[in-house]
Batch of 2 targets.
Target 1
Amino acid sequence: MTASTYHPTPRFYWLVAGALAVATAAEVAIGSIEFFDPIKVVGLFGLAAVKFAAVVALFMHLKFDKPLYRGLFLVGLLVAIPVFIVVLLTFERLT
Amino acid sequence: MAMTTEAPAIDTYTGRRGIWAWITTVDHKRIGLLYGVTALVFFVVGGMEALLIRLQLAGPNLELLSAAQYNQLFTMHGLTMVFLVIMPIAAAFTNYFLPILLGARDVAFPRLNAFSYWLFLGAGLLIYSSFFLGGAPDGAWVGYAPLSTQLTEVVRMDFWIIGLQLLGIASIASSANFIATAFTMRAPGMTMMRMPVFAWMALVVAFLLIFSLPAVSIGLFQMFLDRNLGSLFYEAQAGGDPLLWQHLFWIFGHPEVYVLVLPAMGIVSEILPTFSRKPLFGYPFVVFSGASIGLVGFGVWSHHMFTSGMGPIAEAGFGIATMIIAVPTGVKIFNWMGTIWGGRVRLRTPMLFSIGFIAMFVIGGLSGVTHAIIPADTQQHDTYYVVAHFHYVLFGGAVFGYVAGVYYWFPKWTGRMLDEGLGKLHFWLMLIGFNLTFAPMHILGLNGMPRRTYRYGEGLGWDFWNLAATVGAFTIALSILLFIINIIKSRRGGEPAGDDPWDGRTLEWSIPSPPPVHNFDEVPVVRGLDDFWYRKYGEDDEGRLLALETAEAEAVPQRDEEPEDIHMPDPSYYPFVTSFGLVVAGFGLVYLGVGGWIAVGVGMMTALWGFFGWSLEPVTREH
Amino acid sequence: MTTTPAAENVPVEHHDAGHHDIHPIRKTAMWVFLGSECVFFGAMIATFLLYRSEFADGPHAEEVFNIPFTSASSFVLLMSSLTMVLAHHAFEHKDLRRARIWLMATALLGATFLAGQIFEFTEFVREGLTVRVSPFGSSFFMLTGFHGAHVMIGVVLLAAMVVLSLSGRLYSDRGLNIELVGLYWHFVDIVWIIIFTVVYLLQV
């Protein structure tokens, strides 16, 4: 069917799901526990990014699929993120 | 070789005749023709709106139109020309020729293709129905809040909002279709860098649309919610910000202008080599520049907002980016000039319009560069100088390019040539009329005449050039009339064209005029750029062209009977049903406050029926 | 040169003699769509970030958000991605029965998430956070509302596939396709990953 050669097993998917659950728990902890306040923003964005990447690369199979698909998705991300960061920066109310 | 006098290939092949055949067609060529004819009709309508505007402005203090009527006219003129004329005409050319130029038999999703057309038509009719339902949108084609979020006794801007949303859906569907086609359906041997420039430009445009439309779509949803649900996105008093609308609109709006002009640049890139009998100068640079324009085009949107108070850092950044984008554009211009230089130039009508495109676009580009200088732009903003700039690039540029495309490809669609004498007359009249209309607007703008104002007073010094512009506008109208007469006359009575009347370089000239429904009897195997040219000609020792004996036999396989084992996708009415449902739902949304929910429900159910019928229907029925 | 029979698929790769691989064509289109959805949701997230402190006279984020509840919802949606990929895996291995079970599980988890959203929203409205009370309210409900609508469409597609599989009409080369619906479903999940972090966790 597709040109991919890597075939993950259900066990692999369960493991990834477990890791995602752990990451979510960590996020909630960092978000709620005052002790983590200094690293709150970086920690949360970092964990969210890792979860995002894991689902895209592994569940959506992008890591093992045609480069074309990766390109299409990345262009979308690489347009959206800088453009909207610039929009937010032109407003003065970033507090 | 199959010679056609009438057009059997456009006739039905499954026994369906007439209107039903057109409603259910999934043939990219027919869909292209539908787009083209519809765009032409809207062009005439938009042109008449422009003539009314010019009549009102022909002299000071005229009262041909009230302010309210004037606002509707210039709003609809802009909306019509951008969304209902230029985008569809680019879609017409892309639909018709992208598969053929790539050596394919159709696009990736023929039914989705049909859906895009019917949704476009329905959205256009929805927007225009507003004239008969109390009044057309009147907040300018850019719809700035808070003017556009004000509610008036008669619904107006909601037609604009819903119409644009529907058009956006149609465009995104088309773009996904064309991207899938270009990446997966090229003929064997046709690498990306062997695709014709027009195909490349169509691809870049598709990318621009899918990544820019969602931004304005969100802006439009937010505006709709502000108007209909009392949300506070653009409500400054409550902590919202109208400037957010400007950002979201122009994040789409700027890439949009490249959407309008890049296909025309692609067409010119096909015409110049053909009529100079030379390959395109610097093909990789032309391609790469087109892609760069697309990419950088996402980084300049706030140059439409230089007077909105963003602060010096943002303004400087966008100003620099705007200057940078002139560079790849310049690269293209020089490559086109390099193509013509030293060639054996034939000044036929397509070539005249292409050269006109280059000259007019350069003028428009230069005034654009002056806009990039922020202090200068501060004076130019919202004056007629801007109107001059964008008409030079969009009319002198894009429209001239698309008209060139019509003269170039009319023989392929119909098997007949357009009249050359009428064509040349059209060109000169349009060139003179166009410059007479818009050149004075540079002066008017610098002398302070504001945009979007229904009348001006006496003694301001604007009378003479306004009158000149009005005369110019009617000259343009006359030239368009000649164009339409030419088209109607030549469709049946024009000189028979044959397959390759211009001695072309690309694949569309290797198949009959008009093409059979399956395009190619045998899918070509492509050996290089301009493959068809090199099947016709070799070169002798001194580099002169040598017609190859075997060219004809190789270019078009000899077959007398219709190939029977080529199955084209069957016609389907589901695309029409789905788009019809969405348009009905759209009307419901416009009239949400007064019972529109019913129409929304009915429309969505219809669209859902269409969607499921479509996905469960096989592409080709078993024969 | 061979005559290519069907029109919809003349892919560049011709290795499989006679086999028309429609799948890359549809998968390309789906990734194009998902790329555009990045900009779509990106615009809403940016709007939310712009208005995240614009409470006007309405309730503040920390007054209404219930992090434990939303965390549970997020977990549910995350697990639905697992069941989705397991459904696809089973289908690939021709185990239609197992695929159907995992599809139903995915739809159920999705519906549970939606129920949680509806409950949460009605609570917020009761506590005074509405679309009209503040830009914060407007942007919150638009972002989560659109996300919820995407989930709902996903649940409908999943249910449709379950029904089709019962009558043996779930194919890999036409109609609704598990892999493509899966890509859509996972995308909806990753959007929520961002929303949960940016909207909920970072505002309290």
Target 2
Amino acid sequence: MNPAVPTPLAPPGAQSNAPPAPAPLIELRGVSKVYGQGQTAFLALKGVDLQIAAGEFVAIMGPSGSGKSTAMNLLGCLDTPNAGEYRFRGVPLQGLQRDELALLRRQYFGFVFQGFYLLARTTALENVELPLVYRGLPARQRHAAARAALDAVGLGPWAHHTPAELSGGQQQRVAIARAIVTEPQVLLADEPTGNLDSQRGHEIMALIQGLSRERGLTVLMVTHEADIAAYASRLVRFVDGRVASDQPNPNPVMPAPAATLAAAL
Amino acid sequence: MLLNALILALRSIRRNLLRSFLTILGVVIGVAAVITMVTVGNGATLAIQAQIQGLGTNLLQVRPGQRMGPAGAGQAAPAFTAADAQAIFEQVPGVLATAPEARSGGTVVANGRNWSSQVIGSSNDWLLTGNWRLSEGRPFSDEEQRAGAAVCLIGETVRRELFGPNPALGAMLRVRQMPCEVVGVLAAKGQGAFGNDQDDLVHMPLNTFQRRIVGHTRIGILQVSMQDGVETAAVRGGIVQLLRERRNLSETDEDNFNVLDTRQLAQTLSGTTRIMTLLLGAVAAVSLIVGGIGIMNIMLVSVTERTREIGLRLAIGAREREVLLQFLIEAVVLAAIGGLIGMTLALGASIGLSALMAVPFVFDPGINALAFAFSAAIGVLFGYFPARRAARLNPIEALRHE
């Protein structure tokens, strides 16, 4: 499903055979981030090491101020570290300009935010189309791709509704459709259920988990709710700007396929 | 990239109709006000110039009395006589024609209708100095002028008021108590430089006027028209010298008459109207500025929402220059639409007002361009610069902007 981007990495099959592990999709090495200057400087990340392989569903947890959101912004190329190295697909991103980072986001990343951030007074279809406009896709292909993405999140019939006419859960679905319409490699979700009630939250999580499984999408999700994090296959916990624990989740919550379908419709 | 930005800009305009409308309105008001005011003002200036041309260029008007000085100081200046006019014509070089002009108000009656008008006694040369043409009929014959015959020429206003659709030529009318025959009608000149009706008059031979209307021979004005190409100052000097002699003024006496140069008058008057135009333009410029402040306001109020929007666009991979191009196009399109509507409105308003004020309508490309450029600059400035500030933010900061 992902766009056929030539990868500099070894194919995943080589992983079990070759003793030197291939470069992961995402790798942070000793990454630090400082906000502010002088006396008021705040060290948000203090030498974080993190490796994430393609197709993983990682939940990043931690209390407020633990650096989890900062880590997320760095991972999504929305911000740059002060020290340390960020390698994406084995390529160090050091020294990239704003515009180059923008192109990287355009190509490989999809974003879902707590606050949805849909354009007001704009139909779901046009919201979903937006990233494709920046990719320079012709109108016909834009419409087709946006329709497909809306169908994938179960909002096909709502294509011509504006955010004001949609519920919170539906708005977040539109935002997810916008994030996946470019068929990105990584989906970054910053508290995607934070503005939703519990039931809508679980529906959204079922959708994200489904996308991860069906499309092989790498998902990085920041949350502070344990029952939301339980959908992920790996839990990374931040405390005081450091990774405090990093463990697989052998039994992620698996909603029944029927429930997913029902939620989608 | 340009095409994409255009799509995004047009979508954004459509999405924010109210904001777009208000922005356009600001531009429309400013542009329309300035262009209308200046265009009508220019028309008024032209009209005044044209009227003074109609009065006769190369014309000097000689009136008794000092131009300046306290009222009632010294003796009332003596009037002129018909002989003064003749002497100027014969003795001052460069003079084309002179006409002694005596005026009096009077009621004119014909067809059972009354009309209060100006009665003028003068010669046929008065037609020449005043740039009058006849729309029908003939001027006075020499015999009629000499004998003081009961004949007259009437202005268009008098003809309309007394005769309406009926033929005026050959008709009899009564001026005060004197019956006289209409031998000609003067072609209309329209409104004068001071808003007076130049066509509201009855013209008769000087002798007729003096003997049968006023009963004295005092002349109020000497109209002197000069030959083409002669120096006004020389003719004026000649007239002054001649009249001083004829009025027995000694070396130390001041002139007890004055000579008015209509060309100078024309310059003074059109200078005045030009100042009026500037003033009107300045007042209208205030509305341009107010319109600009309106635009500024709308743009700044929407900046929070727009900052978040810019943050989102940056997050999903828009480059700074793509975002800026979109906002620039948006601002330019709004300003251009506003400017075009404003210019169209101004065109209509200027034509309408010009017709109402009876001044010529002259399209002035300069002021159109200026007003348009100014509004467009404001629109672009305040549409573009807040966006630029937002686009330079980190995407996350922009998204979290409150």
